[in-house]
Amino acid sequence: MSETLLPKRFLFRFSIPCRHREKLWGPRGCELDAAYRLAGFAALENRKEPAELRAAWNASGLGFTLIVEGKKQAPWCRDSRMEDSDSLQLWIDTRNVHNVHRAGRFCHRFVSMPTGAGRNLDQPVAELLPIHRAKEHPKPIPERLLRVASRVSRTGYALDIFLPAESLTGYDPAEHPRLGFFYAVSDRELGEQTLGVGSPMPYQDDPSLWATLELVGE
Fold first, then answer.
1. What is the CATH number of domain 13-216?
2. Over the stretch 145-156, which tens digit does the pLDDT of each residue have?
3. Are 159 and 85 in contact (CB under 8 A)?
4. Stated pTM of the model
5. Cα of 129 vs its chain's centroid, Å
C-alpha cells in the first residue's frame, strides 16, 4: 500500500497548554525553564527537533524562550535579510479562527533572531512583519516595543522574546484564552522545524493550518 502524500500532522488539530507566569521579563530576558516547554509533534513523522520552544503568558503579554543546540556553525542572521536568516517566527491569532485561509487583523507574524543587528551584527532582533495575502493587518506597533535577548554559545543559542499586550491586537486572556498559534525555526545548518505541517504547505499565511495555544493556570 502506498503511503499518503499528506503529512501526518495535517490530519490532526493540535491544542497546546501555555502556563501562566507572574513575571515574563527580567535583566536577562524571559529565561523560561523546561517546565514551560511546548509539546512538539515532529515524532509523528519520524522527524527530530533540534530546537525547543518554551512559552508563558500573563495579562501583560506573551514570553518565549527558544533553545537551539547541536550546531557547529554560528547563526547566520542579517536584519536586512530576515527571510533568509536563522530565526524564530511566531504566528499568533488572538481570536483562534481556523475556518479561514487568509489572515485577518487579529493575526500577527513576529520574527526574531539571536544576532544580525548592530554595527558588528551581534545584536538580537525582533520585529512584527506583515502576513502575505492577509485581508487585514493588525495595528502598527512602536519601534522597539518588542523585547529580545540572546545568548550564543559554540553549540547553539538561547533566544528570548517578549510580546507585550500592546503588540497583540485583540489580546484579552480573560475573554479569549485560546489563541491561534504556529511557529517555525529556520536554521541553515539544522533545517526547518515547525509546530505543525511544514513546507511546502502554506502555513506562513493560512490560519487554518495553525494550532491552538491555551492560556492556562492563572
1. 2.60.40.1190
2. 999 999 999 999
3. no
4. 0.90
5. 13
